[in-house]
Amino acid sequence: MLKLLLVSLILTGMTVLIHGIGTLYAVLHIVRLWVRRHYGQKALDVEMLIIRLVSCLLLLHLIEAGIWASFYYFSGTIASFETAAYYSLTSYTTVGYGDVVLTGHWRLLGPIEASVGVLMLGWSTGIIVTAILKAYNSRLKLTLTDPDQS
Questions:
Q1: 30 and 55 Cβ atoms separated by less than 8 Å
Q2: What is the DSSP letter of 40?
Q3: Could you give all domains of the chain from N- to C-terminal order, each with its CATH number?
């Protein structure tokens, strides 16, 4: 049980670290693009930035689930990496089909990964909502000051 707790804390820490650093750089990149290119002045500018942000966040989630999958595979808990990735993604996203399950004392890692996944997906949702609000607020201000820009 102690080994399980230690492994889950390490995997959770790695997930949070990747997500924290990744979201920071994604947001900074989007802000730099916004400032440098004066986004929001043309049709679909805001939407293209949101697509970039969402794509970056989805890539982070895949990397994070991949970290868990790598543990499952390299520890011998799941025999093939493809199955480990499938199990990890269904756990991380809380889909949990149940067709692949961990055995023995490792079976608690699935619900732990699901809890971590929910938190990371919530974190990403908060970032997306904030980005959309900021971008649309900026677009609204631009439209109100110069109606020809809409």
A1: no
A2: T
A3: 2-142 (1.10.287.70)
Structural contact between residues 11 and 113, judged by C-beta atoms closer than 8 angstroms: yes
End-to-end CA distance of the chain: 60
Q: Which residues fall within 8 angstroms of residue 89, CB to CB, at 6 or more apart?
A: 62, 65, 69, 95
Comparing 1-10, 65-74, 128-137, the range with the smallest average pLDDT is 128-137
- 103 dihedral zone (left: phi>0; alpha: psi -120 to 50; beta): beta
Q: Among residues 55, 52, 60, which one has the least CA distance to residue 23?
A: 60
Q: How far apart are CA 66 and CA 147, in angstroms?
A: 47
The two three-digit tokens of residue 31, written as one number: 């802000």
Q: How do residues 72-86 score in pLDDT, each as one tens digit?
A: 999 999 999 999 999
- What is the DSSP annotation of 55-92? HHHHHHHHHHHHHHHHHHHHTTSSSSHHHHHHHHHHHH
pLDDT in tens, 15-71: 999 999 999 999 998 888 877 766 556 667 788 888 999 999 999 999 999 999 999
